[in-house]
Specification:
The chain is 71% helix and 0% strand. With 66 residues, the chain is mainly alpha-helical.
Length: 66
Amino acid sequence: MAKYAFLFVLLLYSCRSAELISDELELSLEIAGDHRKEFEFVLEHFKQDRKKYEAACFLIENMQYH
């Protein structure tokens, strides 16, 4: 049974939409103020490449701490 639960979680994670915006990303975009448009442009640009999109999300999410 645990094996099926793990597979289900893995399936849900792999089906996650690239356009899903986390709470941390939304907060960073709000804090960005006038620069929000540039960040959204970057996210839109990398939308087709999942790894680059996730890297951009990571960087933008962590900019709020600097």
